[in-house]
Design a protein that fits this description.
The chain is of the alpha/beta class. The chain has 12 helices and 13 strands. Helix 8 links the parallel strand 8 and strand 9. Helix 4 packs parallel to helix 5, helix 5 crosses helix 7 and helix 8 packs across helix 11. It is globular. The relative contact order is 0.17. About 3% of the residues have low confidence.
Length: 359
């Protein structure tokens, strides 16, 4: 008798058919469970996959240390007062990315700090690990972004380069051609971002990740580049869907903003509080950049207090990933990719069914 565990339901449609030729977000789909082969979810093999967002209410020096201690990737905000301290302390750790802008003074600042630490660094051979840089620009597929990346990529002291945010295969390929090793995907997808409302521009991010993954796979050695899904990731399940669609990692902003290690806290009657905000919000630009925007593309969230620590938050996301691998019939994150999963598109009622309701 045929083993009942090897049931074949006949000809299958393309595993990626749900993501083909339509534009979807993580809330538009679910992943179809399969025969679980792990004895315990604790047996699932995980790898690094979480980056902290380079926002002034997310990643400062203390959060950088906390992220390093969890074994993940901090991306240091360029607007925090202790950027220089973080750079001096952690610039030799390739897992730590330092956000810089595209203006000449931003790149000059980087070189000046290096020359202070290592005199004649531009002339001599390196005696330290190349530095990981994140280009902090909202429209990563822009000439100024690509020109800055190209300039950075010429120096031996620069190693990994993360692009500004892109959302199209063409933009991702141009970022790679200019010298990027890490592609940050997500235009208008952040929980504090109003770009799509104010400009009408952007792409649903799950499909954007999938199409960029396909484009890079078709033209390059896919393992040579990292795709980082950025924006609106509230739950571990969102991260699972992004990796299943082709991302290598995810970037967390809001989900980390309540961690006590993050910067930006004020105190009211002994209680720490702050407001999570987009870097293009009016409040941020007026306070830190000294300018009033004619059309701000970021929002300011409600007052928040301390929540889970960085370690607790990262542990929750890793726990969700382990459970997902068990449900999907996989044993490791390396197997979590489009060809090994089945996406199922949801109706509005189907999405509601998968959330707490009636309690």
């Amino acid at each position: 008798m045929e083993n009942s565990l090897n049931t074949d339901y006949g000809e299958r449609v393309s595993k990626n058919s749900t993501l083909e030729n339509q534009h979807l977000t993580t809330n538009d789909v679910t992943l179809k469970p399969k025969l679980g082969i792990l004895k315990s979810r604790s047996d699932a093999e995980l790898s690094k996959y979480i980056y902290s967002s380079p926002m002034d209410t997310v990643t400062g020096l203390s959060m950088t240390t906390a992220m390093i201690n969890t074994g993940e990737h901090p991306v240091v905000c360029r607007f925090i007062p202790d950027w220089n301290d973080a750079f001096i302390k952690y610039h030799q750790n390739p897992d730590v990315f330092f956000a810089i802008g595209t203006k000449k003074e931003d790149t000059v600042k980087l070189v000046n700090i290096l020359e202070t630490l290592y005199p004649d660094v531009l002339k001599k051979e390196l005696h330290f690990n190349p530095i990981s840089i994140s280009l902090d620009i909202a429209h990563g597929d822009s000439k100024i972004g690509h020109d800055t990346t190209h300039w950075l990529s010429q120096w031996k002291f620069i190693g990994n380069i993360m692009s500004g945010t892109v959302c199209t295969p063409e933009g991702a390929l141009r970022a790679i051609a200019s010298g990027c090793t890490h592609i940050r995907v997500g235009v208008g997808s952040g929980s504090a971002c109003t770009t799509r409302l104010m400009t009408g521009c952007g792409m649903p991010n799950l499909t954007a990740v999938y199409e960029i993954h396909k484009a890079i796979s078709d033209r390059h050695d896919r393992k040579a580049y990292k795709i980082i899904a950025d924006g609106g990731i509230k739950y571990p399940g969102d991260a699972v869907k992004y990796l299943a669609a082709g991302a290598d990692a995810i970037m967390l902003g809001n989900a980390l903003s309540k961690c006590p290690e993050t910067p930006g806290w004020n105190v009211d009657n002994g209680v720490p509080y702050k407001h999570y905000r987009g870097q293009a919000s009016r409040q941020f630009q007026e306070e830190l950049l000294g300018r009033t925007p004619d059309c701000a593309e970021g929002a300011v969230g409600p007052r928040i207090n301390h929540g889970q620590t960085c370690e607790q938050t990262i542990t929750m996301f890793r726990g969700g990933m382990r459970s997902a691998l068990s449900y999907l019939g996989l044993t490791s994150m390396s197997a979590l990719k489009p060809e090994n999963v089945d996406f199922v598109q949801l109706t509005a009622a189907g999405f509601t069914e998968g959330t707490p309701h009636g309690t």
